[in-house]
């Protein structure tokens, strides 16, 4: 796997993980002020969630890299090729 495809896979995994982690721990404010969106979280903690996302993504990318490197699953070649290569 080349460096460019590795970066692309990492970025895609990071954003998917970020959007998965984003809603966890959000609580609406106790008192909603006028002009404030009632569904907006009181403390979104985005930097903390970005850090957690990065750690989780590194683990997921490592697993992906091992699976790809060992050849357990390959994305190369044509799966419908009759020669099986």
Tell me about this structure:
The protein has one domain. With 85 residues, the protein is mainly α. The protein is 52% helix and 0% strand. The chain is built from two helices and no strands. Helix 1 crosses helix 2. The mean pLDDT is 86.
Question: What keyword list fits this structure?
Answer:
mainly alpha, 52% helix
Q: How many domains is the backbone divided into?
A: 1
User: Unreliable stretches, pLDDT < 50, 5 or more residues?
Assistant: none
> Based on DSSP secondary structure assignment, what is the total number of beta strands?
0
Based on Cα principal axes, name the global outline: elongated
Mean pLDDT: 86
First and last CA, distance: 18 Å
Strand fraction: under 5%
| Biggest sheet character | none
Radius of gyration (Å): 20 Å
Order of helices and strands: HH
Compute the number of helices: 2
Could you say which structural class the secondary elements and strand pairing correspond to? mainly alpha
Strand and helix map with partners:
Elements: H1 3-21, H2 46-70
What would you say about this model in short?
This protein has 85 residues and is an all-alpha fold. It is 52% helix and 0% strand. Helix 1 packs across helix 2.
């Amino acid at each position: 796997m080349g460096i460019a495809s590795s970066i692309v896979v990492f970025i895609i995994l990071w954003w998917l993980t970020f959007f998965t982690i984003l809603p966890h721990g959000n609580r609406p404010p106790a008192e909603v002020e006028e002009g404030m969106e009632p569904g907006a979280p009181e403390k979104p903690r985005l930097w903390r969630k970005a850090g957690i996302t990065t750690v989780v993504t590194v683990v997921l990318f490592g697993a992906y890299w091992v699976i790809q490197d060992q050849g357990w699953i390959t994305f190369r070649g044509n799966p419908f090729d009759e020669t099986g290569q």
